[in-house]
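question for whoever is on the cluster today: can someone run the full assembly for these? two chains, 641 residues total. i dont have access anymore since they changed the login thing
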Amino acid sequence: MQTHRLWIAALAIFAGAASAGDTTGFVIGKQGQWLASPGAVELDKGRPVTAGSRLESKDPGSSITIAFLDGSAKTFNGPFTVEPLRGPEKSGLQRMLAAVSKLLGQDNRVAVFGISRGSSGIRSAVLQQTGRRVDLGPAIDQLEPGQYMVEFTPAGEGSPVTAKCNFDPPSAASATVPVAPGAYVLRVASASGTPLGAAMVLIASADDFDAKSKAFREGAALTASWPAATDPLAVQQFLTALLIDLQ
Amino acid sequence: MSRHVKHPPFLRYFGSGALVVLAAALITSSIEGSWLFRHLENANLDTWLLAKSVQVSPDVFVVSITDDDYRGLFQATSPLRPDVVKRIVNAIAAAGPRALGVDLDTSEWDANSAASLPKGVPIVWAREASDDGKSLEKVLGGDGAGVCFGLPAFVPDEDGVIRRYPSQSSFAQHLVAACRDQESPAESKGDEGKLINFRGDLGAFDHLSSTALLALADTPQWTMNNPLKGRIVLLGGSFRAARDKYYTPLGRMDGVDILAHAAQSELPGGAVRSPGGAFFFALDLALGLVLVAGTWLLPRGWSLPAVFLGLPVVAFLASWAAFQSLGYFASFVPVLGGVLIHEVIEHAREYRHLLHENTALQHELAALEEGKKVEGHAHKAPVAAHRGHDKGRR
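^ ran it for u. tokens below:
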């Protein structure tokens, strides 16, 4: 008799746990007081929410933001019931038939986009000049291999100089550019002329390259320690000023 | 006379069947690596992966850097800011995971970065190898000395679909081993890789965005009880600019999710075991021989259509049973094709035999008819005389 009672108690606990549902998300923000039923549990930041529970608030203008365990986050302004993240499990036969029908069905073709990353692929850097060749690698190493048009416009006075670059790192990352060492705005375009972006660069002779490159790396490392909320434009302006200062 | 067609002698039937099945098994074994065979196998494997039951992994958790995180936390700037990545890593480590895998490029970090990282949790850092596999890029801004790293690489098939990951020095291996077996990465060329036992689509793993994680990290509720505790956690980018999506048998998937499936495959009982070696050769052969013996028992008039229609179903079910119960992925089609070929050969033999008999019977019939004609001519005159005699009598 005692054993039976223990079993019944265990089953009741198990049933209670099952009916409570799985955790589907966590409260990450709220305005006003929110309660989850059953149980009228007050919800605070960090508290889990389970599928099937009803969340409501009596405060006017209240809202609650839930981070769900499928990676999404949603804000609710009124009462709602937490939905399960996944539907009911299909039987083995249903799954088998679905898989076979997909195997025998028509293939759905999906387009992919061959777009490059744009200006984020071009960045401020110190470039080494050896004779008339300038190593563009540090500035454009995030671009895909291919043919590009590059244009160097002096930071001070002077006319822009253009060149072609068959970029295929690491063997080919330089271009023949008749420019003197100094700070330039580097503009890069695709072979067909589509602008890809621009950044300030410093062209340094082979003798000066190591020292100037090191100084620039130290400056870039300094920006990495700035607060997360720093405007990226401010970082870029700092690096531009540093390169001009180093010339 | 019996209405049933006579069965061929069992020993002759079984002997020839065994030879055909053995030949099929040997051919299967020898062309396993061919383009055609791989394509047939992949179609079969993809079907079983799609048919798997989707259950949320209790072992692996994914923290994603979503598009919103990329804009909000990183100001839409790549490479990702090391200090923000470190905040996320610290928040994950504080949640008490079993191990953490960071699938982010850290090659341009400051070389002293490793000093300020959490120590209590094994962390595996993603590190790229050069295209020829002979050199490695930097990790945490350094040469990798004292850093636990893995190669977050995949081995695409000829159709460009990711089904495998390297069998040596993989990110998943180090993650599951919690950095206990860091060895020098082996050259990856020629590595066929291990099959990824995909558990289903995105629903196979719990996900949380980085912003949500940072919001939760300092709350007492989360600190006491969170879903990262005791699990293997992967941190990676799902933001569009990361361009880290690949085709898999389940559709397009973020690189970090494929790594999660690979990590799950490394856990005990998680792997898809490929057939190979003496065991599966023997299993193929045994199944073929049992079916040859079984087809002998079928009524001869129906055996060929029964085998023709039934064997694809048997091949399908046998492959399903092996995958679901043993975790083995095996294609029994070639050997069962051998059973079908044997049955066709047997029917061709019987047909030839029947043609011979038919020809002989036709000759005999023709001879009989010729004999009747001769006999008929011989009897015609007396019969006519006899009839005339009868008429006269009437």
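summary bc i know u wont read the tokens: The longest strand of chain B covers residues 60-65. Chain B has two domains: 1-32+276-394, 60-266.
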